[in-house]
Amino acid sequence: GNELSEARFSPIPIMADVYKAVDCSFCHEKDIKWGRFECLVCTDYNLCRKCYDGEQYGGSHRLYHPTQPVLDKEAFFELTKSILKPEDDVDLCCPLCGQRKVGVAKLLQHCLLKHPVDADRIKCPVCVTFCIPQSQDSVFVYKGITNHLQRHHTERGLAFFCDTCDKAPITRNRYMCLICDEYGQCDDCFKGKRLDKKHLPYHPVQVVLPKEDYVAQNPLRETIYRCPFCGEPDFSATDLTNHCHELHLNCRELRVICPICAVCRLPFAEYSLLKDSFVDHLENYHGLLPTGLKPKSGPNECVICLLELAHPSGEYYFRCLHNNFHDQCVQKWLSTNPTCPVCRANRAFVRVLLE
């Protein structure tokens, strides 16, 4: 229906704005981005813990204004790595009356029952809690908080469509391409190997199960992520981080979709191509740093023949952008192997992927 079509194309925030610098609006303490308190009425008013507990205020801010606590850094990273989303247990402040409700569902129910006449120029407590940047035009919700919650923070509002057959919505497994910009397939199209002009067979694809299927797993399987560069499957979040730091640090210019964000269905994710590099995203949005990496081979050694390499290959043969081999070695390699000798990524037209 029209409601589902609107949900498909409505613009929503892309990623949590973890880079934004925030200072206390009262005592001017620097960098209080994590664990701060943000007014849901004022344009840009944030308090540190000390000023909030001391009931300090100034300017246009008043003590009776609804104020939402922002997650601390550890809680934020815990959320962004959780397949079974814990945001249902987060206290959310109603921007209309200041009452606190646990989880999006209870907040939405409260707003529908208590505030049938919605108000403009208020902030969404979910967006504030998870550091979600608002639209470029305004930091406020202008079409009402209930409409915003329904469209951007509920499973129905974020309904997924198959981009091959337009089946709507996908209720079972979804297959998310990690290369194409917002391209997902239903189970039938993926298993039937149906493609279109932009989605190609060598693109890494991340399977996303319905939430109830993850809930039913006991214990929860952790090795479910696929590398967006070479397509290798069955990584845990930590192992994926190690793998990318070990083999794909030279892929920073390639824009990909984060498989962790796709699987976790994070409340701030539109599943768009990342604007920053994937390894930076893993650190800044998921708190994932490499651990226990194996020592790398020398930078002046061809990975195929293991002889001295004066200069890396001047050509890029693979979408992973590895080029630490002699041209003659990789050309011989390609006569029998269609994948990268370093990470096993498929051969592809790199120039197209970089655009």
UniProtKB/TrEMBL annotation:
Signal peptide: none annotated. Keywords: Endosome, Lysosome, Metal-binding, Transferase, Ubl conjugation pathway, Zinc, Zinc-finger. It catalyses: S-ubiquitinyl-[E2 ubiquitin-conjugating enzyme]-L-cysteine + [acceptor protein]-L-lysine = [E2 ubiquitin-conjugating enzyme]-L-cysteine + N(6)-ubiquitinyl-[acceptor protein]-L-lysine. Its EC number is 2.3.2.27. It is found in: Late endosome; Lysosome. One of its GO terms (biological process) is regulation of signaling. One of its GO terms (cellular component) is late endosome. Residues 19-75, 157-213 form the ZZ-type domain. It is an enzyme of class 2 (transferase). Transmembrane segments: none annotated. It comes from the Eukaryota. The keyword Transferase applies. Its main location: other. One of its GO terms (molecular function) is zinc ion binding. Residues 302-344 form the RING-type domain. InterPro entries: Di19_Zn-bd, KCMF1/Dystrophin, Znf_C2H2_type, Znf_RING, Znf_RING/FYVE/PHD, Znf_ZZ, Znf_ZZ_sf. Belongs to the KCMF1 family. This is E3 ubiquitin-protein ligase KCMF1.
